[in-house]
Amino acid sequence: MIQSSIEFFKNLPAKQCSECGEKIEEQHECYGNKCDKCNHISN
């Protein structure tokens, strides 16, 4: 049986920051891999 894309994304595990390992509070399917504290983007 083929799983729907909605079910696939709902079942993904929570993402973790690649630097500190903290759970990232955002959509799991996005491309970011660092939490807000470790994401050092300067404007």
From TrEMBL:
It comes from the Bacteria. NCBIfam families: YgiT_finger (TIGR03831). This is YhfH family protein. It comes from Peribacillus saganii.
